[in-house]
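FW: tagging you since you asked about this chain on Friday. Here's the raw sequence from the shared folder, copied in full. Didn't touch anything.
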Amino acid sequence: MNICIKGGTIVNEGHSFQGDLIIKNSRIAEIIQRNQTSRSIYDQVIDATGCFVLPGVIDEHVHFREPGMTLKADIESESRAAAYGGVTSFFEMPNTNPPTVTLENLADKFTRASQESHVNYSFFFGATNSNACLFDKLDCSRIPGIKLFMGASTGNMLVDRLESLRSVFSSAASLGLLVMAHCEDMGVISQNMNREKNVYGEDPPVFLHPVIRSAEACYKSTHLAVSLAKETGARLHVAHISTGRELEFAVPQPADSEKLPQITLEACVPHLFFSAEDYAEKGSLIKCNPAIKGKTERTELRRALSDGRIFCIGTDHAPHQLENKLGGCVKAASGMPMVQFSLVTMLELVDEGVLTIEKMVELMCHHPAVLFGVKDRGFLRKGYKADIAIVKPRQRWQVTKDCIQSKCKWSPVEGHEYNWKVTDTICNGHVIYHSGHFDPDYRGEEILFEH
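HL: got it, structure written out here
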């Protein structure tokens, strides 16, 4: 099918300009600037007047809960939520049940996604204390990298032995695979938890979550991960940075450099949008690991979006049933669903002047593609896969339970009013979402990598 996206403001590779974008079958065939004329005939014309035409978002950090936790979420429901939000590709994490720490379990996820996912997909392989010997059996063209939990979170995949950590980094380095690490020091967290339990009882209130899973716990673990990466030569991507102090590990990339930094940092939407003050209203709905911290930390993270210290933005989308979110620092589950609302949330920060729309596209689309070596996606370029999100400003709407696509049917932004709306999501040249209408029969493609 030939499609013309006509009259929008195209945002790509640091520039914004009015023009038309032409799709032939699954790929971008042409980008025509405003002063040029297209004389072709198209099967479909999408009027993007007054809209912004962006590359489809690549969310490099999601938990879709399948297999083993499908009462909370599954690949079908969460990839549908992604499509509604302008997200055309996702990398899913390994802490499912069973965890993605064997070749068989990894193959099972790919099979499930080929049958269920509405958008493009790939899966991290999970590290354990004893499975680094499997890394050289992986097909590196099919996975974004190795996920390493240096802090315990939902699912028990903690790697806590120094010799095991060193083996994970060394093995990944030998294959050119990136290590994406969840960094929190469990010794510090345990000490903090015991102290607060002595005061508040067995389930301290949730406002103490950033005190227990503290800035110190994050910094100490990130420091260890960076040290191991430098020792072994491995590439390290630190997941969901939540403190200003961790930003010292960033190595901003010079504008004219084609070489990627060895150490890169990810910020996640919840840490950029919420702050510790929001526990008073949202309570355990915004409990996640690492914890959402104070406004000062959030300000530092937001500042780092524009100066190059933050390299990518993900969501850490992690649904739970509402009943799992009851309680405090011990009983309430950590994680929240955000994939459907990540793009409009970041566009709200654009409106607030936190970053430009061009920088937002770089962090959510271009940089994930470059960092992980995604083939033919993440940019609006001739010959690339036509993964596209069209968004319209000044479209006031409110998040209600009815519009939430995640299987858990709640969101911490429920009741929030946004000023931007996703009007269209195009995946591999197929219009999967258009003005509230969704194509449930479409299936995305497996993402390929060039490490």
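FW: The longest strand covers residues 2-12.
HL: agreed, and The CA atoms of residues 28 and 375 lie 14 Å apart.
FW: great, closing this out.
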